[in-house]
Amino acid sequence: MFESTLGIALRSLLGGVLAALLMAFFRVRHPVFRKITWAVVIAASFCMFLLHNGPHLAIPHISEPSLFGSALDAVRTTVPNIPQFAARHQSGSRVEIHLGGAVAFSWSEVAAIADWAIVALLLVRIAGGLFTAASLWSRATSEFRFRNTRLRFSSEIETPCTFGLHVLLPAALLNWNADELAPVLAHEVSHVRQFDFFLQLGARIYTAVFWFSPFGWWLQTECARLGEETSDYAAIQVSPSAMDYASLLLKVSANHELASLVYMARPSSLRVRIDQILTPGRLKTLFLHPLRSAVINSMILLVAVMCANLSVAARVSAMDIGGVSGTPDQVFRGFDIISVKPHRSGGDETSMNTDDMHFHATNVPLKLLLTNAYGIRAGLISGLPAWAEKTNWDVEAKMLTPGPATKGEVSDHAREKAEYETRLQSILVERFHLKVHEAVKTLPVYDLVVTNGGVRFKETQAPVGKRGMMLMNDGSLSATGSTMSALAESLSEEVERTVLDKTGLEREYDLDLHWTPEDRAVTASEAGVTDAPPPIFTALQEQLGLKLVAGRGPVKVLIVDEVLMPKAN
């Protein structure tokens, strides 16, 4: 989230610099049109912020996933010819560091929390100023209208100011003569007609959201300066002379201000304004050639809109349907037709099968879909709501035309598995509105190593198109042309702990393994069965010449940020 906000602030800064350079190059000095330009920059920045972060302005939560134990333990399902494999890098994933084996620590999440804390404080300050200003207005008396603008007098302020579309005047002005009061009213009415209050409020909110950007703080000052230039010019038109108006500004200057009011005389800018007012012709030259400024400013805004449109188009084109990014030959289509319904018939039987253009699943929990879509064990998924643990689903999905990876014979089995994952992710994103991120934690693992006696299997002789096939079900594993990393991933499900390949074997092998699952070992012993296969740890050593050594290592976990109950098809 913070990385996205930082990127938007940078694009906004570049857009502001481009607009400033174009206005300087074409000598656009008219304050009104310069204000219009900055108003568009502010609005575009807010639109980009909403586009990137969506309607849910939520900070990703810090949570410790449930690593062991799953509602799927009683249901073991294997998808033929599509073994589990390590989840690929997802856009926006974050790395978490495990400190002292207890608490997961993520710098990106800490940055996001700190960012929103500062934003909240600045927004509260703005809200407090608005509340105070509204209170001042409500307590003011003697309301009257001037040029369709509501004005009130208050004894609590010392200088005229604008609040929204209203003007608040010090009670002392009731004793002023018409020559003194006319420039004050002209100044404030100009603020109202130019919507300076709302422009400066937008600049303050921009500064709050992008507090770390110097452009925001400069923009806030610049919008205030341009507003005063416009209003000073309007006031001079009804003042006896520039000297009289400068004296009037000194007379009404105050030593305080509220963040939500547009004051007539800010002490911080008063000297600069008086110098500009008293310099002959200096203020007037800013308002020359308004038609030329309007035409050039329209061209500048057109260029800015085109640049913003290209930025949005580039962002959209970089996305694929499943939210998975990669090189052009690793991005696949999702399904064209998807049906998801709650399973109603009851029973424990679960099934999933797929081919080039179809996917069918019956009575599957959401967590099982996640394990297959992201190549991760069920025990390493966290953040699912209660309904996701209780409801099973029937899923039907199909493609109307073959995708690029399904035309002809698929010889690269890894590519086939990647396409399978991406299609499942498209179902989860489309129907469950899934949002996830990956993290890496240091957790208990098993290292898969070669025993002292050496391996007891051979390198495969199967054709390339027949390699990478693995079937693991109910105490047996059969593989043709499998890698050791694929074997480690498959063993992870059986031992309920991540298995890391430390064998050093890099070729593809034919494997055959039989064992008695832990939940059936007691039953076999009680029944007096003596020829049952050994447990998985013993079977690996006796049949394959491999063993599992307990240790600790980096493990990818999947954290669900958002998932919604699917609506009716």
Polypeptide structure, described:
The strands form 5 sheets. Strands 3-4-6-5-7 form a 5-stranded mixed sheet, sandwiched between helices. Strand 1 and strand 2 (103-105) form a beta hairpin. The chain has 569 residues and is of the alpha+beta class. It has helices at residues 2-25, 31-53, 107-139, 178-193, 196-209, 214-236, 242-252, 267-278, 282-285, 290-317, 366-374, 386-390, 413-432, 484-495, 518-526, 536-544, and strands spanning 97-99, 103-105, 141-146, 149-154, 161-163, 166-170, 262-263, 337-342, 351-354, 358-365, 381-382, 392-398, 435-450, 458-459, 469-472, 476-482, 499-501, 509-514, 546-562. Residues 54-105, 312-330 and 405-411 have low confidence and may be disordered. Helix 2 (31-53) packs antiparallel against helix 6 (214-236). It is elongated, with a radius of gyration of 34 Å.
Brief descriptors of the model:
569 residues; alpha+beta; four-stranded antiparallel β-sheet; 16 helices; 19% strand; elongated
User: Structural class, please?
Assistant: alpha+beta
Tally of DSSP β-strands: 19
The average pLDDT is 77
Residue ranges: pLDDT <50 for 5 or more in a row? 54-105, 312-330, 405-411
Helix fraction, binned, reads 40-55%
Choose one word for the global shape: elongated
Outline the biggest β-sheet.
5 strands, mixed
Number of helices: 16
The end-to-end span amounts to: 32 Å
Q: Order of strands in the sheet with the most strands?
A: 3-4-6-5-7
* Beta-strand percentage range: 15-25%
Radius of gyration: 34 Å
